[in-house]
Amino acid sequence: MPELPEVEGLVRELAPEAIGRTIEDVMISPIVIESKERGREAVIKGSSTAQFISEMKGMTITNVTRRSKYIYFTVEKNGQSYLLVSHLGMTGAWFTVNRVEDVEEDKFRRHIHVTFKMTDGGLLVYSDIRRFGELRLLNVEADHPPLLKMAPEPFDAHAIKHFLDCTKQPRYEKKPIKAVIMDGQVISGCGNIYATEALFRMNIHPNRAANRISVARKQQLFEVIVDILQESIDAGGSTISDYRNLSGESGTMQDRLQMYGQQQCPVCQSETKRMQIGGRTSVYCPKCQR
Question: Catalytic pick from 21, 69, 218, 244?
């Protein structure tokens, strides 16, 4: 699943390509339309496909930003602003092309589910192989309350206090620290990849309870998470399987990962172990991480 660095990189490329362009028409794939007709919320969330198409026609994109793992498109029509929220799920990807055929990789081209035709003739395309992502049109952010529960951006000055305060709360204090730092209400945008890396760098076992880690160590852990997220942004994110940037290119952070997906610890050469935490597979070194 794309995490904060991957979404940040995509937004930085997407903004100059999308801002100022107006949507002339919207095409939605038959499989999404059929899923919606059967009552399943596939890709288009919170409205019918017909309503979504009608509302998006004539919208001008005025801004593209990131909030945690979400892409926020600020759009405007008839003097009124709206918010189109996009989450990439496991395999979502955006492309700006002149023709659908210009999406180079077949696996993305075969799974295009929303195509925005622009008045200038170009296309803004959303592809999603597993269809776990979403597009949701809102009047304002508060119309979808879960968005308001997201933790502060990790680069914000007050984010570390928010993190430390959360770890003292009864619902978090006895949880595995890996589950805590992957919770978007505790730290925004840190998923399995970067949580794994941060815990390895800090020599902390992923299953250690949050209340069994000193405040000083938790503060250091947060700082390491921020450093890793920034390092990944600078490297264009991690391409583990299906992440691509706007140009269809892979990131390079996966070449720097020391623990995620590794069979052997790079420090002590021990065989790594795996366990399930928070519904995700956690890789760790049984000797280095305590």
Answer: 69
Q: Give yes or no: 69 in active site.
A: yes
Cα–Cα nearest to 137, from 14, 16, 23: 23
Active site residue 3: yes
pTM here is 0.93
Last residue of a domain, one of 106, 123, 149: 149
Catalytic entry in 3, 6, 8, 197: 3
| H helices present in 147-214, as ranges | 159-167, 170-173, 177-181, 192-201
Closest listed residue to residue 213, CA positions, set 204, 222, 200 = 204
Verify whether residue 130 is a known catalytic residue: no
pLDDT digits (tens, 9 = 90+) for 52-68: 999 999 999 999 999 99
Q: Which residue segment(s) compose the domain that 253 sits in? A: 159-284
| Residues 134 and 246 both lie in one domain | no
> For residue 61, what is the domain's CATH number?
3.20.190.10
**What is the per-residue pLDDT across 144-203, written as a single tens digit (0 to 9) for each?**
999 999 999 999 999 999 999 999 999 999 999 999 999 999 999 999 999 999 999 999
The residues facing 67 across adjacent strands are 70
- Residue 230's domain is classified under what CATH number? 1.10.8.50
- Of 97, 114, 149, the residue at which a domain comes to its end is 149
**Which alpha helices (H) appear in 2-56, and where do they start and end?**
4-18, 30-37, 49-56
